[in-house]
């Protein structure tokens, strides 16, 4: 495909604080963190891990909310590529400085509560607190924990920082000055990129395209079938920062408007491949509470603000959190190449470790998730060493229907037990048609060892994986037969709903 030159734009346009920036000839895979520290010389934002884990590099990104105002989200600058800033506002700890030299309320609260010692993590925490403040503030401990789970502090301890979050409060959504500021910023950003053609950087070190529609994306991928599709970059960013890969070309899907919708119709949810975890969370939580809870525990707030459900599927990881849950729910995905679309059951998309049913030039367009029918129970359990910000060792998701004491439907899907997310078909067959009792539970547990031969790695041994998977069947059994028995850690501040 040849895109008319008049339809291309070769500069990134964004607001850095309130300053308009237009950058040309920038390396498309330069990270926001490197640009801040090495080019803009704004060194308040720190580098810790360089892989999205520690939060030292947390910045706030603002983008027009489509309703004439702005919305603000934290992201990890270390794994965001510079061109993804196009049409957005980048805010760093430097922008919290006021003209009179006073500290911002979140900074003052950190001082008042002694929330900083060596200070290395502090700018990152301050930006997470700032995002909470922009959203009106938070008093609830669980919500504060969720907002801060992606920021690690090795010396102060979290108590004072959580206290700072409470003390800082937040700006009122009704504050007229703030409302006007957001309307003005949104209008400026829209004017900067709205009528400008598609961003297409062709630099000596690599190319980067940011189509605005699925049609343009489909054409681009046919023309560049080996391009790297970039969504939230929470995997792809690490290929650059940790594996030192050169990616050329990159096709970014974060500006494709029609991939960013979540629609519910007739009990079926359709999630565009560009929808972030944060934006999918509420809708998935309505499909089944445990899916919402799973999504809440993915990575951190910063990761959920960037990473997409589509990326979690497309990367084919055996330990991605959403695929087992979506498979147990009977989800399907729509793939598109050029003008040809096809729909496949999600479980069939994962062929074997590292191989998915996706041709060169094809992309994941959306995922279709049916809501469990009345009377069907859905449970999902993530086992990891830490509650927050941790990769899964084993994930189990079950959809079960019991009528007159007999199991009439049962779908069991696991992550971390094989080279792909996978259904446990022998386990399912062992209980369908049986009474849902301890005898069939034992049969289901025995069948699991015929379904899977898990591996040992640094997260868990194969013996542990099998045992925990079998124990999760026991948990399912207890929760579906004696629901009054407490099986979750609610009350120990581990699982806020
Ligand atoms: C600190 C940290 C914590 C994490 N925690 C978790 C966790 O708890 N649970 C979990 O499951 N994952 C976790 N991840 C992994 C990651 O967040 C997810 O896999 C995420 O869903 C990837 O989505 P993305 O939008 O960032 O994808 P990207 O990184 O942009 O892309 C991932 C892969 O999918 C391809 N791709 C993306 N979208 C499409 C599309 N529409 N069509 C075709 N190909 C596409 C890309 O080319 C690439 O191969 C974590 C990652 C980090 C860095
Ligand atoms: S430097 Fe650790 S999350 Fe970015
Ligand atoms: S204050 Fe030292 S790491 Fe947090």
Automatic annotation (TrEMBL):
CDD domains the UniProt entry points to: fer2 (cd00207)
Listed Pfam families: CO_deh_flav_C, FAD_binding_5, Fer2, Fer2_2
GO molecular function: 2 iron, 2 sulfur cluster binding; FAD binding; iron ion binding; xanthine dehydrogenase activity
SUPFAM superfamilies: 2Fe-2S ferredoxin-like (SSF54292), CO dehydrogenase flavoprotein C-terminal domain-like (SSF55447), CO dehydrogenase ISP C-domain like (SSF47741), FAD-binding/transporter-associated domain-like (SSF56176)
Keywords for this protein: FAD, Flavoprotein, Iron, Metal-binding, Oxidoreductase
Residue intervals of the FAD-binding PCMH-type domain: 201-374
Signal peptide: none
Tagged with keyword Flavoprotein: yes
UniProt superkingdom: Bacteria
SMART domains: CO_deh_flav_C
PANTHER family for the chain: XANTHINE DEHYDROGENASE
Protein name: FAD-binding molybdopterin dehydrogenase
């Amino acid at each position: 495909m040849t895109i008319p030159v008049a339809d291309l734009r070769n500069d990134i346009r964004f607001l850095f604080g309130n300053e308009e920036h237009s950058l040309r000839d920038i390396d498309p895979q330069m990270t926001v963190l490197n640009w801040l520290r090495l080019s803009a010389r704004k060194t308040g934002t720190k580098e810790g891990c360089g892989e999205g884990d520690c939060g030292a590099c947390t910045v706030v990104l603002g983008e027009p909310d489509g309703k004439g105002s702005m919305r603000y989200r934290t992201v990890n600058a270390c794994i965001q590529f510079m061109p993804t800033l196009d049409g957005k506002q980048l805010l760093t700890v430097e922008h919290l400085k006021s003209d009179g030299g006073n500290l911002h309320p979140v900074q003052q609260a950190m001082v008042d509560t002694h929330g900083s010692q060596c200070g290395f993590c502090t700018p990152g925490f301050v930006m997470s607190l700032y995002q909470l403040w922009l959203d009106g503030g938070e008093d609830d401990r669980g919500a504060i924990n969720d907002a801060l789970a992606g920021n690690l502090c090795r010396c102060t301890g979290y108590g004072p920082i959580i206290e700072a979050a409470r003390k800082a409060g937040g700006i009122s959504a009704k504050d007229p000055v703030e409302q006007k500021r957001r309307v003005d910023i949104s209008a400026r950003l829209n004017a900067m990129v709205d009528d400008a053609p598609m961003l297409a950087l062709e630099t000596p070190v690599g190319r980067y395209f940011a189509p605005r529609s699925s049609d343009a994306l489909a054409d681009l991928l046919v023309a560049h079938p080996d391009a790297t599709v970039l969504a939230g970059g929470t995997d792809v960013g690490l290929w650059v920062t940790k594996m030192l890969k050169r990616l050329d070309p990159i096709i970014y899907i974060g500006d494709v408007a029609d991939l960013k919708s979540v629609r519910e119709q007739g009990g079926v949810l359709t999630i565009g491949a560009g929808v972030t975890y944060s934006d999918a969370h509420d809708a998935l939580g309505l499909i089944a509470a445990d899916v919402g809870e799973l999504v809440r525990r993915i990575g951190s707030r910063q990761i959920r603000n960037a990473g997409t459900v589509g990326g979690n599927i497309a990367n084919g990881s055996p330990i991605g959190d959403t695929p087992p849950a979506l498979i147990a729910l009977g989800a399907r995905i729509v793939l598109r190449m050029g003008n040809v679309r096809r729909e496949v059951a999600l479980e069939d998309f994962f062929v074997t470790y590292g191989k998915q049913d996706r041709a060169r030039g094809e992309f994941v367009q959306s995922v279709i998730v049916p809501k469990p029918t009345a009377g069907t129970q859905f449970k999902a359990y993530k086992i990891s060493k830490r509650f927050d910000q941790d990769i899964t060792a084993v994930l189990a998701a079950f959809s079960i229907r019991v009528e007159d004491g007999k199991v009439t439907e049962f779908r069991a899907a696991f992550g971390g037990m094989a080279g792909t997310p996978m259904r446990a078909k022998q386990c399912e067959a062992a209980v369908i048609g049986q009474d849902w009792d301890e005898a069939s539970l034992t049969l289901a547990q025995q069948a699991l060892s015929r379904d899977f031969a898990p591996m040992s790695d640094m997260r868990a041994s194969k013996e542990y994986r099998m045992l925990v998977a079998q124990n999760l069947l026991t948990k399912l059994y207890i929760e579906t037969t004696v629901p009054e028995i407490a099986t979750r850690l609610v009350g120990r501040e581990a699982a806020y709903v």
